[in-house]
Each structure stands twice: as C-alpha cells, then as structure tokens.
C-alpha cells in the first residue's frame, strides 16, 4: 500500500505514521507544514525506515500537492492536517478557515484530478479518508449519543471549519464519484500530545507545581479515546470502509473534566507523594465561550461493520499516558520552553 498522510507530524498523525510504517509496513509519504503543532521529534522511531518519506509542504499549495501526488502515486490518502485547538480558534480563526476548509478543498481537488487519470483497477481501489471530529455534531444533553446520522450543529470556529470540510468531502463523492470515507472521532489522548490540550497540560502543570485551570465547574463531559486505538481505527476505515460513508470512532469512555483532572492528580500523588496532594492545584477559571456540555460517541457501526474495538480503557490509557510524560521530558521540555508555556488561550474582552 502507498499511503499519503497529511499532518503526520501532529499528535494523531504521528501515531498513525508510526503504526503504518512499523506495524503495517505500508509505504508512507508524510506531508506536513510543521506549524507550531507539527514536531518531527514524534517520528524519531520511524524517520530512517526505508518505507517512510517526509515532505515539508502546505496542503493549501496546490502545485506542491499536485507534484506530491504525481511523484508518490498514492493508492490511499489519509487527511489529518488541520488546525485542531478550539481555544486557538476562539482567539483567531484565520488559520482554521485556511487550512481546514481551503486546504481540504485543495487536497480534494488534487486527489480528484489524480484519481481521474488512474486505470480502472487502481481507480476502484483508491480511497480518500478525511479525518474529522465528533465536535461537528455540537453538544449533547445528559442523555443520548452521537450517531453517523446526527445532524451537524457545530459551536466553535474549529468545529464549524471541520464541519465545512466534511461537507466538501461528501460533496466530492456525490458530485465527482471520488471514493471518500469520513471518520468522526471523540477526544484523543496519549503520548506525544501537544501540551495545550486538557490532559497533557494538566500533567505538565501538575508536575511543575503550577495551577490546573479547569474551565467553569468542570462538569463538561468528553469521551476519551487512546490515540493508538484511533490510529488502528483509521487504517481499518481507510482499507475497508465503504466509499461515501461516515464512521464514528470512540471507546465509550465518558468522563467529566474534573474527574479526569482528579485521576491525573491521583496518579501523580502515587509517584511523587512528597509533592501531593496535587489536587490542591486545581483552580476553577472563567468558562470557555460556547463550551459544549457533553460529547459521547456511538461507535457501533465501526465495531459491527468493520470489526474494530478500542483496546484501552480510560483507566489503562491514562496510567500509560502520565507515565509516558514522566519518562519523556526530552520531548515536552523544548515545547514548554520555546513553543507554548501553558498560558490561557481563547478568552476575549466582553465575555
Ligand atoms: P495536531 O494539531 O496535533 O496536528 C496537526 C498537524 O497538521 C501538525 O503536524 C501541523 O503541522 C499540520 N498542519 C497544520 N496545517 C497544515 C497545512 N496547512 N498543511 C500541512 N500540514 C499542516 O492535530 P491532531 O490532534 O493530531 O488532529 C489531527 C486530525 O484529527 C485533525 O484533522 C483533527 O481535526 C482531527 N481530530 C482530532 C481529535 C483530537 O482529539 N485531537 C479528535 C478527532 C479528530
Ligand atoms: P480540549 O483538550 O481543548 O479539547 P476539546 O475542546 O476539543 O474537547 O478540552 C477538553 C475539555 O477540557 C473541554 O471541555 C475544555 C476543558 N479544558 C479545561 O477545563 N481546561 C483547560 O486548560 C483546557 C485546555 C481544556
């Protein structure tokens, strides 16, 4: 298999590239612009593998994308490149509109022209997997789960830009016949997670004795999936998903934010009992504007149709994750010092 991955230097993309290169043995071309969230250090374990290549390019650059398709000749595209942080999208949405919407359009149209010229066998085997989020469905109340048929109702500039890109991808299937599949996944966590998102930020702040900023009352619920389970799901969907279909991905691990933070504190208390209890660092801060109350995924279509199942529970995954950060300061220290040191993002005057 020849797989062109976009955003492979990011959190989920790097887990996917490691899985494809080492676990599956696919030929992989990783196309990434290396924004603040892109980090080649996450790919150290595969960087010299003979079946791995890296291309430093922006997906919005149509000429570079055409060149990449023409020279690499993929039979599968797995599109993950995006701006991914809700709080940054609240501070300013320009890059989100550009990469998530215009970039997806650029890649889709490049893929369509490339696919059009393939011979019949390669044409029918070709797949374009668009990797999206459950946040496109908006917010749930106390009951119910997101299904593939749940109407789109995004709340943040981030989720609205992802919703727009999902619509483009499905339109390219209905209009041009491009064999696309769309995956909508819940919140991921695990190793190599950029420390702006809840879980890695709380781990590193707690380790450094800094305040743990919980938005609002901490009762918002997210449905957590270990990133390596997501990487396996993406390969499954790209290889066996039906063209034109959407697949929800999630591991039935709903947790309130405050309970996630308490769990991280308890694990750290076990390791550094002299510095505990870490939960004394928790600080309830001003809520995020437009903060969705609850996300929860029904993944039964993916489980029954394609046989995927999450392997990690939240308990096993969070334990592994905290220990990974304890053991891999070489990876996160330069990010905390040079890229993002944990200041609050996504609040603005008048709110
Ligand atoms: P991330 O922010 O960690 O990584 C994004 C990667 O895309 C980075 O390597 C960055 O350099 C690259 N990139 C950004 N703009 C680019 C451009 N214009 N051209 C080329 N590369 C560019 O993101 P992530 O958390 O790994 O998420 C990956 C994908 O999965 C995204 O599409 C996101 O919407 C989706 N997703 C994320 C989650 C989650 O919990 N993180 C959940 C569901 C879906
Ligand atoms: P986040 O990791 O930003 O993911 P998303 O917004 O895509 O769900 O946030 C997860 C949850 O944690 C969300 O409800 C917002 C909350 N949160 C905090 O309470 N404090 C923080 O410092 C951050 C970054 C998030």
Automatic annotation (TrEMBL):
It is an enzyme of class 4 (lyase). The keyword Lyase applies. The keyword NAD applies. Residues 4-321 form the NAD(P)-binding domain. Keywords: Lyase, NAD. It catalyses: dTDP-alpha-D-glucose = dTDP-4-dehydro-6-deoxy-alpha-D-glucose + H2O. GO terms for molecular function: dTDP-glucose 4,6-dehydratase activity. One of its GO terms (biological process) is nucleotide-sugar metabolic process. Its EC number is 4.2.1.46. Its cofactor is NAD(+). NCBIfam families: dTDP_gluc_dehyt (TIGR01181). Belongs to the NAD(P)-dependent epimerase/dehydratase family. dTDP-glucose dehydratase subfamily. This is dTDP-glucose 4,6-dehydratase. It comes from Rhizobium leguminosarum.
